[in-house]
Every structure is written in C-alpha cells, then in structure tokens.
Amino acid sequence: MDDARTVALPAPSEAPEPRQLHAVQTGHAVPPVQYTCSDGIAVATLASPQSRNALSPEVLEGLDAACEVAVEEGAKVLILTGAGRTFCAGGDLSGVNDALAHPDSEQEIGVLVDRLHRVVTMLRELPMPTVAAVNGLAVGAGVSLALATDVRVVASSAAFVTGYLAVNASPDGGASYHLARALGGPQALASFLLNRRFTAEDLRARGLADAVVEDADVLPAATELARALSVLSFPTVRAVRALVDAAPGNTLSAHLDQERAQFLTVAQTAQFRDAMAPFARRAAAAAPA
C-alpha cells in the first residue's frame, strides 16, 4: 500500500446508515461524530466540517461513545476519519477561551485536557486494531488523535502541523510522546518550536504514514487495510501494541521478560492454537510411518 497508484480498492458495497452519536445530549441537529459498522469494520467520522472538526467537548464525547459502541458491537477494526477537507483542526479554541474566563481557569482547562486524554487512552487500549484515514489537515491535538491509532492511511494533500507553539501552548494528547519516539528528541523538539508542517510524503518517509493515496481514495484504502487487519486476534493485537509502547523505556532484559510473558499468554488462546493446527497436521503427515 505504499504507492498510491497501486492501491487496490475494495469492491463497492451498500454503505451502512450512519449512527448519530449523542444527538440529544449535545443538542446538535447533526451530531459531531457519526458511527457506522459494516462487516466488522467500524468507522467513526468527525462530522463538524464547519469547525474543521475541532475537538470540542461534544466531539470528544462522541469519540468516547464511538469507542464504546465499537467494543459493544464486536467490531474487528475501528477507522477514524474526518468529514470535509480537514481531518481535525485540533482543540476547540473557543472552549479554551471560555475556560480561561472561568474563575477557576486551571481546573476548567484541566477538564478539557482530561477529556482528550481519555479518548487517546481509549484508542490505545481498544482490543481491536485502529486505523486513521487522514483525509486532510491535522493540527495540534488532531495530530495527537491520528498518532494514537495503530496504522495511518494519509491523503496525498494532507499534512500534519504541530500547531501548539502558534498559540504559545505546550503539546497534549500524546503528540510529544509519539513524535519523540518517531523522530527522536532533537527533531521532535524542533518540530514543535518551529511549528513544522509535515506533508504526506514527509509522514511516509518518517514512518508516520503507512500509505499515501489520492484524496478520494483515503477511506476506501483505509477500509481495504482494515479488512486485512480484521483477521487478527484481539489478544495478539493488544500484546504487540503493549510491547511496542513499552520498548523505548525498557532494558533488553526487562523487555525480553515482557515478551516472554506476552507470548505465554497469547499461546493459550484459541486463536493461536487454531493457527498452529495446520502446521501440526502437515508435520504429522510428513512423519515416517
């Protein structure tokens, strides 16, 4: 999937009806997050293009609900994307201004950050693989949201902009965690200080995009990739994710211990035993009589 020209798109199928999350609670005529699930592939769409899908409390509430519904419905993969030409413009600055005007502004801003961090944590702890279909620009916390997923398919016109220093803010949502791991400390620091813009090709070159495709193909390509991921067992996905997340802070000895523990746990699952069964049968058939 590395070359946009060679991506094989999935066969057309009837699109599922979007499930509108938290319409009554938020009072929106069109809720800020829409959810669909078809053949085990769930899609959560940030659906506030008029605000460039900024992460208002309502949007974060909808994302929270989408993660919960995906688990409840037994989705095999969750895709996160945006409506319109922007993936996510970052935090809702009007909400931040309201929090600053509050007598206890520190607590109010803390509530906003905690809501974002809850969604990021949920994405990292979901049992199923997650895919970001980055349809356009991602800024600030929008970058954090995309980097919280396991795999990213990026539209050719999309870009990541760190954004925080444009308003003299420090990063949140795990942006500094993920960029420091991907780029190294010095480059990550420079990226924040210089408010650097990463094009889709920059992201692919740095390992932050797993595929770059034409703009119109980003969701179909993400869906194709999700279908490939849907055969993976949840215990294996969670084990691999946990090991990769833990690796930078581990010594080799500690990491080997964690790999051993995860392998022993996964080896007891029915999915592992089913996958090993054909090898056992072939070995038995090839054994001398």
Notes on the structure:
The protein is α/β, with parallel strands linked by helices and 289 residues long. The chain has two domains: 226 residues, Alpha-Beta Complex (2-enoyl-CoA Hydratase, Chain A, domain 1), CATH 3.90.226; 53 residues. It is 48% helix and 16% strand. It has twelve helices and eleven strands. A seven-stranded mixed beta sheet has the order 1-2-3-4-6-8-11, with helices on both faces. A four-stranded mixed beta sheet has the order 5-7-9-10. The longest helix is centred in the middle third of the chain and has 21 residues. The N terminus is likely disordered.
CATH class designation of the largest domain: Alpha Beta
Q: Estimate the global geometry from the Cα principal axes.
A: globular
Query: Please, what is the average pLDDT?
Result: 88
Q: Work out the radius of gyration.
A: 20 Å
Helix residue percentage: 40-55%
- Uncertain regions spanning at least 5 consecutive residues: 1-14, 22-29
Number of helices: 12
Query: Please, what is the oligomeric state?
Result: single chain
For the terminal residues, how far apart are their CA atoms? 45 Å
> What is the architecture of the largest domain at the second tier of CATH?
Alpha-Beta Complex
Strand content: 15-25%
Describe what is shown at a glance:
By secondary structure, the protein is an alpha/beta fold. Helix content is 48%, strand content 16%.
Overview features:
2-enoyl-CoA Hydratase, Chain A, domain 1, globular, seven-stranded mixed beta sheet, 11 strands, single chain, 12 helices, 2 domains, 289 residues, four-stranded mixed beta sheet, 48% helix, alpha/beta, disordered N terminus
